[in-house]
Amino acid sequence: MSTPTATTSGRRAPLVVRAVGRLSELTGYLSALALIAATLVTSHGVFMRYVLKKPTIWQTETTIYLLMIVAFVGAAYGLKHHAHVGVDLLIEKVPTRPQLVVRLVTAVACLAVVLVVMWTAYQGWYEAYLYDHRSPTAFRFPLWIAYAILPLGMLLVALQYLAMILEGVLGLAGRLPLSEVSLLSGTSELAHVQSELELDRELHPGQGTPEETGSDDERSAR
């Protein structure tokens, strides 16, 4: 596995990459707030309907829109932290630099799909805004507001992909340590857990895992 050279070990990602990373982190907090709001709105709706016997017309629709924010606006946060579903059983067996090339190609392909979705969603939003489309319910919510969530979310995802691609290119060019390239970091949850366990064993050589400790206790009892 390749290691960063002395000329690149002190270099950081470009400012634009770090700015996009902070923006993606912010989307995670916004997504969490939207989820909390959706929970509160749903609880309020249940209370009004089944306790006070006074159902309202806005809770269900509002909850749907809030969950759209959770899914689409929070997608950039998920991408940054490699939280989306992926199959990396084979690619992690490949050496670092060829692995980065494969991940770059995959990221470019995913970016293309995201841009297509963003453009298509933007057209739907523009039509809803131009003709002032409303939801076909008693709430009559302006759909251009709801339809803005998907293209906005895809824009944030596209920015995160662009930042990751730029990092990967700089890593291949030797201008950024491969350890700092997000396309290569945090891709395997199992590997992360195993590395933490190995580090814990190094720091506490006399302590084993709970299973090992339990086995030692049983032997002592015998």
TrEMBL record:
Family of the protein in this entry: Belongs to the TRAP transporter small permease family.
> Which parts of the chain span the membrane according to its record?
28-50, 62-79, 100-121, 141-166
Q: How does it sit in the membrane?
A: Multi-pass membrane protein
- What protein does this entry describe? TRAP-type C4-dicarboxylate transport system permease small subunit
Instruction: Please list the GO terms describing molecular function.
Output: transmembrane transporter activity
- Tell me where it resides: Cell inner membrane
Highest taxon of source = Bacteria
Q: What is its main location?
A: membrane
Q: Which UniProt keywords apply?
A: Cell inner membrane, Cell membrane, Membrane, Transmembrane, Transmembrane helix, Transport
For this record, the Gene Ontology CC terms, alphabetical, are:
plasma membrane
**Which InterPro entries would you find in this protein's record?**
DctQ (IPR055348), TRAP_DctQ (IPR007387)
According to its UniProt entry, one GO biological process term is: C4-dicarboxylate transport
Q: Where is the Tripartite ATP-independent periplasmic transporters DctQ component domain?
A: 39-169
